[in-house]
Amino acid sequence: MGRDTPKNAPGNPAAALASLMQRPDHFANPDTSETYEMIPMNAPADRFVPPAEAVTATALALAASDGYPLAAHHWQPAGTPLGVVVINPATAVKAVYYHRYARFLAEHGFVVLTYDYRGIGASRQGNLRQWRHIRKLDWGRYDCEAALAWARQAYPDLPLHLVAHSIGGLLLGLAPSGAAVQRAFTVGSQYAYWPDYGPGKPLMWLRWHVLMPALTALLGYFPARRLGWHEDLPAGAAYEWAFRPASLEKSYRRHVQAGEAPLAHFDSFRGEMLAVSLTDDPFGTPAAVRRLLGYYRGARRHHLHLAPDAAGVAAIGHFAWFHERFRPTLWQDSLAWLQEGRLRRTPRETLEPENSARGTNG
Fold it and tell me: 327-339 burial by CB neighbour count: b if 16+ within 10 A, else e?
């Protein structure tokens, strides 16, 4: 890994890599009070959740601008809708994991769109070796864009909002239609620059920045399901995670050299953003969240940093915020934000729009 090798990396990489199969990254399991590495494949949240009687959910297919078909669900409230919410998943997490939360929003008056990124869940098209070129950049500029464009076309008179988990918060800035979003609510959103990781950094670095690219190079994709960690990842997405530099400019410099402008849409988002981080999330640390927030220069950004005891629990981690047990607590924070732009808790910091960003497209 060269200059990006952490100074405190274990001295025996082979032994440390072997231990990765035994030691979790201490993410809170969404379905129990115990801690596990990732969402178990047999977890109750890993299947379609029928909507409440007053809510309807319809499967549909989205077409990205490059022709790739995306599986989605359209959630409709019983009465007159307040707005439309698009939900961006975390890396390699199926959209069904967010269905309980989507139903919650629909029960409170929102139209909701959930969808799987290309190569993930119901949007996976066969053998991932044939789709090794898929990158997270594609999830933003094509897939998130398709979801936002559908919402704008289907409900042109309703306010458009976004809820994003982990990498989903980055994808908003890669989508041209992100400029139409009025409010964004993110949970643990960052882009996995390893020096920003929290407790367990050395083993996390070995797992995601050594083992993952090594297995990906060997097999042509990252076989996360076999390891019980994630959904499988296309090679391009795995490498983009594994070799992410400190800045997005460096990450996408080849695209810029080819005449593209992958970061051009960040400044176009002029809405408001509430970014939530958890004290026991080793990915979404304050430094990691702040690093991503710095790219949304045209928006007013609130950073809310919470400890699990704020919700009366011992652990939340990177995933459990979307567990239904937080319906009366944490989910209410998002509801107040999406409905009224109201903060129920005092944020760690508020970043005002930067004049340079406001003037870029104005």
Answer: eeebbebbbebbb
Q: Which CATH number fits domain 2-360: 3.50.50.60, 3.40.50.1820, 3.60.150.10, 1.10.10.10?
A: 3.40.50.1820
Structure tokens at 107: 């029960």
Q: Where are the domains of the chain?
A: 2-360
| Bridge partners for 28 per DSSP | 35
Exposure string for 351-362, b = 16+ CB within 10 A, e = fewer: bebeeebeeeee
Q: Which of 32-46, 140-154, 161-175, 213-227 has the lowest mean pLDDT?
A: 32-46
Place of tokens 């990842």: 233
Q: pLDDT digits over 19-41, tens only?
A: 444 434 433 333 332 222 333 33
The C-alpha R_g of the chain, in whole angstroms, comes to 19
Q: Strands 349-351, 300-306: parallel, antiparallel or unpaired by DSSP?
A: antiparallel
Residue 315 has pLDDT above 60, yes or no: yes
**Helical pair 235-242 and 212-219, crossing angle rounded to 10 deg:** 150
pLDDT in the model for residue 24: 41
What 3-state class would DSSP assign to 274? strand
The letter for the amino acid at 88 is N
pLDDT tens digit sequence for 45-59: 445 555 556 899 999
User: Does an H or E element contain 221, and which?
Assistant: strand 221-222
